[in-house]
Design a protein that fits this description.
Elements: E1 2-8, E2 11-17, H1 18-21, H2 26-34, E3 44-51, E4 54-61, E5 66-67, H3 71-85, E6 92-97, E7 100-110, E8 113-121, E9 124-133, E10 136-144, E11 148-153, H4 158-169, E12 179-187, E13 190-197, E14 201-203, H5 207-220, E15 226-231, E16 234-241, E17 244-258
Parallel strand pairs: 2-3, 4-6, 11-12, 13-15
Antiparallel strand pairs: 1-2, 1-17, 3-4, 4-5, 6-7, 7-8, 8-17, 9-10, 10-11, 12-13, 13-14, 15-16, 16-17
Length: 262
């Protein structure tokens, strides 16, 4: 099986064309491939089929569970397509996902790193609520940006990520599970986050998580609608415009590999 390894700000994915699976059950395969010690290692497996305008894809998290979309993942796939098709800045790629078609415009090329501006669509079901975590009330902002998100505005620490965000990710309020971001508004145009990703755990970055944090910070934290979202893996730009969210950042294709295990 031929696979491609790519990442965006340390949020890494394995890409496999649908035909490479040869009918294999994708969920257990994703768990084996994404294992950091016994597999190749990744936050998720993206299975795709090419199309004239780009590709269609389905995403499985590292634990084999399905996900509707990944903002960094679609950028990784777009970077691979741009490399294969020798696309240059000014070109665009459309990735069809369960959460709808996402257009990515190629802005810049710096060696192996390609920067895209992705149209992520409008946020949905934006709500502020209080949830109980270990008998403590936690104020959260919930929404969808193609997938479920829960943002906790305030202190951003590793201790709180494991004590609060990890439990919110599997809270009964979210039957499908949810991605969780701790977010601190450091300036009107800068928000710092830590991420607990559904089906993965802590990740260095998240495209949809950055979008969710930007919306929550603008709606309830005093941030502007054009912000830099700072995560452990680096900084992405999110614009919340009248027609939806736009996510700008880079992705890098780092290897093609052959899976030999039976």
């Amino acid at each position: 099986m031929r696979l491609v390894k790519a990442h965006a700000y340390g949020n890494d994915f394995l890409l496999a064309e649908e035909q490479e699976l040869a009918g294999a059950d994708a969920a257990p395969l994703a768990r084996r491939l994404c294992d950091r010690h016994r597999g190749i290692g990744a936050d998720g497996l993206m299975v795709f089929s090419q199309s004239p305008r780009g590709a269609s894809m389905r995403l499985l998290n590292a634990d084999g569970s399905p996900s509707e979309i990944s903002g960094n993942g679609v950028r990784c796939l777009a970077a691979w397509l741009a490399r294969e098709r020798t696309l240059r800045p000014g070109a665009c790629v459309t990735i069809d996902t369960i959460a709808g078609a996402k257009r990515l415009d190629l802005l810049e090329e710096h060696g192996a790193r390609l920067t895209f501006r992705a149209a992520m669509g409008p946020p949905e079901a934006l709500t502020r609520r209080t949830l109980d975590v270990d008998s403590r009330p936690i104020d959260v902002v919930t929404l969808r940006v193609g997938n479920p998100q829960c943002v906790v505005l305030g202190e951003v620490t590793e201790q709180r990520l494991h004590a609060v965000a990890s439990k919110l990710s599997v809270h009964p309020a979210f039957p499908e599970g949810t991605n969780v971001e701790l977010a601190s508004v450091e300036a009107p145009d800068r928000v710092r986050i830590l991420i607990w990703e559904r089906g993965v755990g802590p990740t260095e970055a998240s495209g949809t998580g950055a979008c969710a944090a930007a919306v929550a910070a603008a709606a309830y934290g005093g941030a502007a609608r054009d912000v830099q979202i700072v995560s452990p893996g680096g900084t992405q730009r999110v614009e919340w415009l009248a027609d939806g969210l736009y996510l700008t950042g880079w992705a890098e294709v780092i290897a093609t590999v052959q899976w030999l295990a039976s």
